[in-house]
Amino acid sequence: MPIKNFKAPNKQSSKNSGEAILVTDYMTKKLVTFKVDDSLDHVINQLITYKISGGPVVNDDNDLIGIISETDCIKHISESKYYNMPSDTNNTVGKYMVTDVDTIDKNMNIFDAAFKFISSRRRRFPVVENGKLIGQLSQKDVLKAAIKVKASTW
User: Domain 23-149, CATH 3.10.580.10 — does that match?
Assistant: First the structure.
């Protein structure tokens, strides 16, 4: 008995068929950024105020130079406040930030970006163009893209 349940491709054309869904379509462009000389108390307050888990560190020319996260701030707390030590005058972003930062290209397909999240275990990727920070893609941004995409366009 032959199999009869194969379905031919839908011939309806769609505006989005064949078009890649890019990082630039879903990345956040208005970012909370930090400077090397910002205090960690300032960073902690900003993270709480804006309900974010970290942010890029830029210089005056908006070049990406690092990332500061909740984890980095917790390291500071565990090193000083937990032991009731006096505040170090060098409790700055520059001391605690991560400088080896993975970035993502604005023209990458959003589903390739999703794979990069899975394989790297990162929560966010800064988007850089010519060394300048232009945005950030988070895991939540990928989820937003996935919700808007119809299953037939995957």
Answer: yes
